[in-house]
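Title: Prediction job returns without error message
Component: structure pipeline
Severity: low
Priority: P3
Assignee: unassigned

Description:
Job completed but the reporter wants confirmation the result is attached to the right record. Sequence as submitted:
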Amino acid sequence: MTERVPAGQGQVQTLRDLPARILSLHNVERRGAGVPALTWDTSLAASAAAYGPQLARYGSLRHSPPESRAGQGENLWMGTRDAYAVEEMIGGWIGEKRIFRAGTFPNDVSTSGNWSDVAHYTQMIWPGTTRVGCAVHKSARWDYLICRYAPAGNVVGQRVP
C-alpha cells in the first residue's frame, strides 16, 4: 500500500502498519481490563472497508444495519481528512474509560448514567469478543474509521469487567 496517513506531530506512517497499530491499541486496553487479547481478522477488516463508501455517501456517522453484520459489533469514528492519526481516532474511544465503571450492560457501566457515553470503550474491552478488523475510508472531506468486532459486544444483561 502506498497511501499514507498522518501519525500526529508531523510524522507520517503508511497504512501497511495500520492493523498492527489498531490491534495494539485495543490490546493495551484489554490487558488493563484483565481480558484476553484480540486477534486481527481480515474478513472483519474487509467488511469494515466495504461500509466506508456508504458512510461517505451519508457524510455522517450511522451504524450499519445489524442484519448486514450478523454477530459483529461496530465502532465508528469520523474526522477531518488527514488531520488525525489512528491513535487519535481510537484515543477518543479509549477516553471514554474515564467515565466507565464495571457493571452490567447497559444500565450500570457509566458514571454519567448514559451507557452510550462509554459504548465504544465497552466494545473494545468486551470479554467475549475475540477478533477485530478495521478500515480507514477517506472521502474528499472526511476520514472514517470503521472497526468490526466478533463476537459482538455490548450485550444487554451481561457484565463488563
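Comment from assignee: result matches the submitted record. The two ends are 38 Å apart (CA to CA).
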